[in-house]
Amino acid sequence: MNITPQAYSKMSQRAEPKSRAAVNTMTAFVVGGGICGFGQIIRMIFETYGFETQTAGAWTSMILVTLSALLTGFGIYQRLAKHAGAGTLVPITGFSNSISSSAIEARSEGLVTGVGTKIFTIAGPVILFGSAAAFLYGLIYYIITRVF
């Protein structure tokens, strides 16, 4: 069978699935925004009850991380992530989900050699590169504010 490049291109265009990039982008935006909006509501409740802004933010982060871990444990977060994609990965809840998922997956190997190891396998690079990026950004900020 002898197919020309043009004919092959037409055949492959007909066979490839239609892109859902626009729908996926909007879904991720809405779900990620919803998670962040929920966090903002929690923070505003804490501030309403007299917590300082930093303290309210810290409690909000802890609540979101805990809820994400619980939802991961019950399998709900994965179902949400299946439909929302990056919308569930970007907020702090995505980090909690990734750590919780690996811990749940490794629980049969024991607490130390399974759960402990897998948690740091996922969290280690994030903490390392997050710390390195924070140092680099802090250094750049220091240089900019002192020199300029």
Describe this structure in words.
With 148 residues, this protein is mainly α. Helices cover 81% and strands 0% of the residues. The protein contains six helices and no strands. The longest helix is centred in the last third of the chain and has 37 residues. The model has no long low-confidence stretch (mean pLDDT 84).
Quick take:
The protein is built from 6 helices and no strands.
Q: Give the helix proportion (percent range).
A: over 70%
Number of strands: 0
The assembly state of the depicted protein chains is single chain
User: Main beta sheet: strand number and arrangement?
Assistant: none
Strand content: under 5%
Radius of gyration: 22 Å
Q: What descriptors fit this protein?
A:
mainly alpha; 148 residues; 6 helices; single chain
Topology:
Elements: H1 5-15, H2 21-48, H3 53-73, H4 76-84, H5 92-105, H6 111-147
